[in-house]
Design brief:
The protein is mainly beta. It has one helix at about 110-125; strands at about 15, 30-40, 45-50, 55, 65, 70-75, 85-90, 95-105, 130-135, 140-149. The protein has two domains: about 15-105, Sandwich (Immunoglobulin-like); about 110-149, no CATH class. The protein has one helix and ten strands. It has a four-stranded antiparallel β-sheet, with no helix packed on it. The chain has a four-stranded antiparallel β-sheet with strand order 4-3-7-8, with no helix packed on it. Strands 9-10 form a two-stranded antiparallel sheet. Strand 7 (about 85-90) and strand 8 (about 95-105) form a beta hairpin. The longest helix has 18 residues, at about 110-125.
């Protein structure tokens, strides 16, 4: 009598992420909501966000992630320059992992600088300051140089 062997294969469908992008006109102080939607793939799966190849910073209270079975929402309550970078959504299940990335650009909020500039002009008039130089740095800090006469 011949031996009969039965093989059972279980193929799990890998995740597939829908493309997403960030709005091009985001300014410091704006809110961000971005959806990572896994349009196919077997559950259970895990979905995580990464920034510049690393885990999202846990010490930034402005960043929240809300994850459900097949989607994850990245929320940033108040954008700042340090939030800019490459964000990647990674979905993983027993079959494989998939990821999709998009670049977030955060432009400076010129309203803050306009307010400070106007305040410096008042200081110039009140304290007879001859020159005021003000510049914006990449870290959004303002360097001020006063030349007193």
């Amino acid at each position: 009598m011949a031996d009969i062997f039965f093989y059972f294969f279980s193929f799990s469908e890998p995740p597939r992420i829908a493309a997403f992008q960030f709005h091009e006109e985001l300014v410091a102080g704006n809110r961000l909501q971005s959806l990572c939607s896994v349009v196919s793939g077997e559950t259970p799966m895990t979905i995580v966000w990464r920034k510049d190849g690393a885990a999202l910073p846990r010490n930034d209270p402005r960043i929240q992630v809300q994850t459900h079975e097949a989607y994850s929402m990245l929320l940033i309550s108040e954008l700042a320059a340090h939030h800019a970078g490459r964000y990647t959504c990674v979905a993983s299940n027993d079959a494989a992992s998939a990821n999709y990335s998009a670049d977030l650009v955060v432009k400076g909020n010129h309203q803050h600088y306009l307010f400070i500039y106007r305040a410096l002009l008042i200081w110039k008039a009140v304290f007879s300051i001859s020159q005021i130089f003000c510049c914006r740095c990449e870290s959004e800090q303002i360097m001020i140089q006063l030349n007193l006469s």
